[in-house]
Specification:
heterodimer; A: 369 residues; mainly alpha; two-stranded antiparallel ribbon; globular; B: 539 residues; ABC transporter involved in vitamin B12 uptake, BtuC; 2 domains; 22 helices; 5 strands; 4% strand
Chain lengths: 369, 539
Amino acid sequence: MSGLGMALSSPRGVLLGPRGWAGVLAASVVLLVGVPVFNLAVPEGSAFHLSDYAVSLTGKILCYAICALAMDLIWGYTGILSLGHGLFFALGGYAMGMYLMRQIGSDGQYRLPMPDFMVFLDWKAFPWHWALSDSFVAQMLLVVLVPGLLAFVFGFFAFRSRIKGVYFSIITQAMTFAAMLLFFRNETGFGGNNGFTDFKRILGVPIATPGMRVFLCCLTAAVLIALFLLSRAIVNSKYGHVLQAIRDAESRVMFSGYDPVAYKLSIWTLSAVMCGVAGALYVPQVGIINPGEMSPAAGIEMAVWAAVGGRATLVGPIVGALFVNGAKSWFTVAFPEFWLFFLGALFIAVTLFLPDGLAGLLKRRKGQP
Amino acid sequence: MRSVARGSTKVGVGIGWHRRLGLLVGVLVGALAGVLLASPAWALPPDLAYRIAAGDSDARLQALGEAVASGDAELPAYLRALLDGEVKLAGGKVYVVQGGQPLPADAEDVVNNNRMRGEIEGALAALGLFSPDRAARAKAIAELKGSADEARLALIEKAEAAEPDAALKAALGQWRAAVLVASADRGKRLAAAKLLAASDRPATRSLLIERLAPGAEADPEVRAALQASLDAVAARLAWGERLGLLFTGASLGSILLLVALGLAITYGLMGVINMAHGELMMIGAYATYLVQNAFRRAWPEAFDWYLVAAVPASFIAAALVGAVLERTVIRWLYGRPLETLLATWGISLILMQTVRSIFGAQNVAVENPAWLSGGVQVLPNLTLPYNRLAIMAFAALVLLGMAWLIGRTRLGLFVRGVTQNRRMAACTGVDTARVDTYAFALGAGIAGLAGCALSQVGNVGPDLGQGYIVDAFMVVVLGGVGQLAGTVYAALGLGVLNKLLEGWAGAVLAKIMVLVFIVVFIQKRPQGLFAMKGRSAEA
């Protein structure tokens, strides 16, 4: 087993060495020190000032990077392509959104203690699933529990029946599609088409202030770095090696006496929880959550972040998420018509020419095999 | 002004003669001056016309009732003039004003209060029952049916007796029964309740349910009769409803089948996770749209037959795009299904944006040819629309054509050979690369045909394919990959299941339930309904 482990980890040896740590440290300094200083301390007229827009954009993209990391664990390292991670992301977002809706209190359009969409629907009491929405702690638990539980139940049945490969991808897509249809309905109690928006404060602190913006962005960065370190520990552990063996030859792993179901189920659930956390961080920064986040397109886009960066590299998908979403922000402002052309071409180019993504490109240029 | 000095005309010499003369004069005057109210002047008894227009409301209403009961053919035009304020009174005569000619100096306007206006409008609608125009009669029946006023009974009976059209006669009979069943006279109610048992119309059932509602009918014997009639009618309607449900289910199933058939080749046989399948359908739909426009511009008299040209055009357009895609992108990805998924998703984004750039983001209008509108009535409550029937027939034809092509032709043999054992096929001299291109183009072309069919029942826009892609994969996966028969059963089964659930839980929940059902089903039978027989350990 150790020989296999060595063989598997050798191309990623850089992550373990001092250079890996240096990278983590550099990223931490840039995000956790650089963002607050350049946004808050540097005066607005200065060339070094980081605009508020840039801060919230960075925060948003870092949330996506967490999703890309989660995709990498399940797809890059375990070989299971999920097209339903958009659902877990959105569920985490909705759990956070419910709390934020309650925090609006009576400051909504109708000046009533109920969220506006419920007043509009003429509901007199909160539906059952809003029972805990007033408590920050409870909702934060739900951020983890709801995506985790759904992933566990779904994965349990799917992996037990040995659904794999494309079949699994397609039924995860069906799952997120069904959930999207459900959330689009007003009766579901999640604001229908419009979802949740117009948030005012979080834990009693106003949400649309520069300080809060920087805090959320830094919090996201810290979570991303922590999850990155966790993922790195996972993939370099024995557990992580079994995952990679499952990816490469599931039958052989089974015949060697391992039960792939437990491995796949645990990493699948962890990956879903990571997406849920990303969603919960995303909502207060972007200020809206609606069922569009669960569309099959959103789930596939997450896969492309991982593919662009390079699967099974951990750093690659993060870079991929930054690159694709950075490009998206630029294109949708500069050439809105060409964004889909670019994204489509990216999908094709990466699969045809860059099977190992940007990380593979980097390695090739360094002359490594 | 055409002074219709009704008092001074020689009424009573012979009404028939007057009418004929009236018509003649009417046609002449109408043709000359565009005057609408030429003929009524001669036939309506002038004193009656005057009484309708002058006096206190009750007297006027009584006169109106008399006039309506006489069923006079010229009364409607007069009443319309009355409503439009074109009738003036002067010296005990009525004048119908047309244009700006002088009136007698003492002419007064006729004042119609709201009650009067309402009654005149009602009378007009009632008179519509005797209009020579069938559409006008149907409209009048539809308008008046809501009121169960017993005073109208005589009118209804008269109209029913005079009605030449069977459908309208039945509608009038229905209405009469509805009035009678609400009558104050218990005997009449009972008789009507029993009479209604013979009906086979959905409207009768709602009427009976309405009468059986608490507070509507107090008499126990009448209630029992109503209940018996309701049971009889409901039993008669149940068959139509069941068949109707089956038909809409089969219709949805045939659409799903068309949508999934192309995918059964590209995904089922070739193993390409073709996420751009929906966009190939969209290309077929847009090809139909272009053919339609070309016909409208160049050959408008043959517009009704544009579909005949659109079917091959949509096939060819989508097949060409498919062939290009296969040669440029998909060729390099065989055996790596997850990669084809991502690449074809990218292709679908590009195709969508291309169409959006060329045709705009809005839906475009594709018109049904005349022969596809309307439907055939099988049962009183079951009409089968022609466009749905045509799509079912079309789906069957495409299915047969495809089965023939795959099962009976040399190309089909090659396709099967290459999918079963690529290297062995190559060894026996099959140009596998070319076969791949043909097979993918065929799958794409069938998607184009599906798009052509969809353009006849739904919106055509850049997002057309997105709505169907999940469904298409569900059908193929449920049916068992690589199984044509499985695809057929899965499509029809899902269509009927969807419609059954829809009747019970609403459209969106039904859709969700179907998706959940498929997810659960795949847990149980990962290989679909009809598993490929073989010894392969890995799917």
